[in-house]
Specification:
Blueprint (H helix, E strand, L loop, with lengths): L7 E6 L10 H15 L3 E7 L12 E5 L2 H4 L4 H22 L3 E6 L5 H8 L5 E4 L4 H5 L17 H16 L4 E2 L2 E2 L3 E4 L2 H7 L8 E4 L21 E5 L8 H12 L8 E5 L5 H13 L6 E5 L6 H6 L3 E4 L15 H8 L4 E4 L15 E3 L4 H13 L1 H18 L2 H17 L9
Parallel strand pairs: 1-2, 1-4, 2-3, 4-5, 5-8, 8-9, 10-11, 10-13, 11-12, 13-14, 14-15
Antiparallel strand pairs: 6-7
Helix pairs in contact: 1-14, 3-4, 8-12
């Protein structure tokens, strides 16, 4: 290979370009793909066959793998068929693309055989770790006997078979004394590095690359000095996002003098219908459903409209135990800051690397609805504080979360990984 200035990159994700959902992994995958292609690199995407792609006409998006949710419910015979098919398609794709480097960006939805095949590929790999990535894919013994998926006839037998398969396949992963033998690992927060470093080989080179926001889409939107009355939440409707806490806090504010005219817009979808029904039932129970707009799933490019039409962004994501969050570097938070929205945020590891209480947000340090309601009320009542938060937020996005900065850092990591490749057949 004469030059590494133009790479052939194979980007591995679970879903890619979903039309009606909003997830940080999808957003970053699309942003990186477009940005790296714009810089002259060849980028192919390998994703699940079940992915509903908004860019299905793109010939460089390859639906190669079976989704984990399909594979894990199969009979043993079906598991074998799926595994062989996945391995075959993966091998064909590698021979066709001949990548200089594989960037494993978001894999929580891929089946165990797919993960194993990727790990054992000789091409240099860079892994981007999310908050549950290691637990889901490598340390199967932590969740081997949980739930048995579906408690129906034969479910216990399938559960036992799948649990055994996970345990067997986990030993096929390249490890060093039960640590992952990974050369390059990317995290989007220092908290994730500290939390997962113990799972990685001492030789693993770790990078912290915070998420970025495209300020050409999420542009600053001028607002007057009127008292805020339109609250907005953007994100997936799953329990750990804390939307239930937000609805309870909203109900408390609606009962108070001076905030009775508040409205709440909830932008986002979920594959968990039980969760969504529970949230709607909670709003009905608290008698605030008439003041809540449920937008549902919105394509990423359409999110800016709802941010522009709102006055205050609320990020109520909860924690899982003392000092453990489910967030890394939240894209929704960055986008709200980029359009000039004042932010109220539940502070936790990862989130506190993006925003600071009293500087770029009004911070909340508990999951109690009362504390969240008080923080929202403070932001509403203090015009000076809102101005300070907006100004500091815009500067923080420009300084720490620019799209060009993220692309520059990603390029450096991928070029370094490809340059250290010792497999000549992958770089010819």
């Amino acid at each position: 290979m004469k030059s590494l200035n133009r790479l052939r990159i194979l980007l591995v994700v679970d879903d890619y370009g979903r039309i009606d959902s909003y997830g940080g992994g999808d957003i970053i995958a699309q942003t990186l793909c477009a940005g790296l292609r714009g810089r002259g690199h060849q980028v192919d995407v390998a994703c699940c066959q079940s992915a509903v792609s908004a860019m299905s006409a793109d010939r460089r998006i390859h639906k190669t793998f079976t989704a984990k949710c399909i594979w894990r419910r199969a009979t043993l015979a079906r598991m074998l068929v799926i595994t062989l098919a996945d391995l075959g398609r993966w091998g064909v794709l590698l021979r066709r693309v001949r990548p200089h480097v594989v960037y494993c960006l978001h894999q929580s939805g891929l089946s165990i055989p797919a993960i194993t095949a990727i790990n054992r590929t000789a091409v240099p790999k860079v892994y981007r770790f999310g908050h549950e990535w290691v637990r889901l894919h490598y340390y199967a013994d932590k969740c081997v006997w949980t739930r048995f998926w579906e408690r129906r006839w034969g479910g216990w037998l399938l559960g036992a078979a799948h649990a055994g398969s996970r345990r067997i396949l986990s030993y096929l992963v390249p490890t060093t004394r039960r640590r992952l033998a990974i050369e390059q690992a990317v995290f989007n927060s220092h908290d994730l590095v500290e939390r997962y470093r113990r799972f990685l080989s001492p030789a693993t080179r770790c990078y912290v690359l915070p998420n970025a926001v495209d300020t050409r889409v999420f542009t600053q939107h001028p607002r007057g000095n009127d008292r805020p009355r339109r609250l907005v939440f953007v994100g997936r409707l799953v329990p750990h996002k804390g939307v239930h806490t937000l609805i309870r806090a909203f109900a408390l504010l609606r009962d108070e003098e001076g905030t009775r005219d508040l409205t709440l817009t909830i932008v986002g979808a979920s594959t968990n219908n039980v969760c969504v029904k529970g949230l709607r039932a909670l709003a009905m129970e608290l008698a605030v459903s008439d003041s809540i707009e449920w937008v549902g799933g919105v394509h990423h490019l359409g999110v800016a409209k709802y941010l522009h039409d709102s006055d205050l962004f609320v990020f109520p994501s909860t924690t899982r135990g003392p000092g453990v969050t489910v967030e890394g570097c939240p894209s929704a938070l960055l986008e709200a800051m980029a359009v000039g929205l004042p932010v109220v945020a539940r502070l936790g590891p990862g989130v506190d690397e993006v925003v600071r209480d009293g500087e770029t947000c009004v911070g909340v340090r508990s999951d109690l609805p009362r504390d969240l309601a008080d923080a929202i009320r403070l932001a509403i009542d203090s015009q000076g504080l809102r101005r300070l938060i907006v100004a500091n937020g815009l500067r923080a996005v420009q300084r720490n979360h620019s799209l060009d900065g993220m692309l520059d850092a990603t390029e450096r990591v991928l070029i370094r990984a490809a340059a250290e490749n010792r497999a000549p057949r992958a770089t010819e």
